[in-house]
Design goal:
The protein is an all-alpha fold. Helix content is 59%, strand content 0%. The protein has four helices and no strands.
């Protein structure tokens, strides 16, 4: 993991630290999350895309019109 040095005024950093603490995080985590979104997809988005691609390849489904159940079918306790 690389390090990054930023230059900003003291008041901005102080206010950012206060807001980060209020949100239970750190300025470092906020900047990292922002840069990940700015640079491209996050790990969660990549995981979701991978999962959706796998479901497409599986061929499983409920048919072209989908499947619907009645309330009785959903709560059938055989």
């Amino acid at each position: 993991m690389a390090n990054l040095t930023l230059t900003l005024d003291d008041d901005t950093l102080r206010r950012a630290r206060i807001r980060a603490l209020e949100q239970g995080t750190s300025v470092n985590a906020l900047v990292r999350d922002y840069l990940e979104r700015y640079a491209g997809e996050s790990a969660a988005a990549e995981g979701l895309r991978s999962f959706l691609a796998a479901t497409e390849r599986s061929g499983a489904g409920s048919g072209p019109e989908g499947r619907s159940w009645t309330r009785d079918e959903l709560y059938d306790r055989r």
